[in-house]
Amino acid sequence: MKNGLNAMFGSSIAIGYAAYALAAFGGMPDVERIALPGEYTGHLQDVWYDGADALYWAHTHQLIKTDLKGNIRAKADVAEHHAGLEVCDGKVYVAVCMLQSKTGGKTLPSSRVTINVYDAATLKLLEEHVTDINDRSGSLCLLDDGTFLVGCLRPPDITPTQVRFHHIGKDYKLIKSYVLDNVPVKLGIETIKRHNGFFYLSQYKGKGLCIKLDKNFKEVARFELNGTYGLTFDGDYVWVGRTKRNADKRFVSEYVRIKAPAGF
User: Fold this and answer.
1) Which structural domain, as residue segments, surrounds residue 108?
2) At what angle do helices 11-20 and 2-9 cross, to 10 degrees?
3) Angle made by CA atoms 203, 68, 264, in degrees to the nearest 5
4) Fewer beta carbons under 10 A from the terminal one: N or C of the chain?
5) What percent of the chain clears pLDDT 90, i.e. is strictly above it?
6) Which helix (H) or strand (E) holds 8?
7) Which pTM does this prediction carry?
8) Chain segment 117-168, per-residue pLDDT in tens
9) Among 120, 110, 106, which Cα is nearest to 54's?
């Protein structure tokens, strides 16, 4: 597995990852990877660890809950493109890109940022919130005050080297929009996560560019985590989602544990 890690994350991260495999681990199990059973038509979008005994996987057309060994505990087929997710107080909040398969991946005048809410135990749909924001949802982060950050798949009104995210209130109304410059990626923001007072925006495709922001959403650092489809924190270490096509051209996915790079 070491060669694969070198190719995917770079030698320095791979070495830290391998060394850490011998150490005791906190809430997550002391293993290098956790595989998701099954094959899927859509790729992995995002991952979440609840800090206790459950992992959540947003897999485009499915939401999945597993235990820490990867055994499936709940699964829901979903009609629309489900991407960034977070779990809080017994609910799963998911950024949903409506009509993604019918628009050819384009932002249309009818596109709206949408957040769905599911029961964290059963993955039963509880609420659907279609906002007035003309954008396509790609990622989500829930803040302490109950408001959201939602990252967008690149809209046509910004340049190819910009990405946009929105701060959305508890009432699902827009508070403020932000644009990051010098972000040369193809499709926009894949994942938004928060850790130790910072925000981490992992970009969709490109070289796995991950941008670290302070509490005021100002950029403080950049990293490359190739092959990342979602990330979740556990102490000073990071679990990243990985997904790839198999011989049948369906997707298989896993959580992979890495040592966070310096300054992460």
Assistant:
1) 36-227
2) 140
3) 35
4) N
5) 60
6) helix 2-9
7) 0.86
8) 999 999 999 999 999 999 989 999 999 999 999 999 878 888 888 999 999 9
9) 120
Q: Which amino acid is at 245?
A: R
Domain annotation covers residue 17: no
Q: What is the dihedral of CA 136, 86, 249, 103, to 10 degrees?
A: -10
Place of tokens 């709206």: 112
What is the amino acid identity at position 256?
V
The CATH number covering residue 222 comes to: 2.130.10.10
Query: Considering the domain boundaries, does residue 135 fall inside one?
Result: yes
Please give the structure tokens belonging to residue 108: 């249309």
Q: Is 55 helix (H, G, I), strand (E, B) or coil?
A: strand
CB-based contacts of 144, cutoff 8 Å, min separation 6: none
pLDDT digits (tens, 9 = 90+) for 161-203: 899 999 999 999 999 999 999 988 878 898 999 999 999 999 8
Question: Residues 31, 54, 43, 199: what is their CA dihedral angle, to the nearest 10 degrees?
Answer: -90
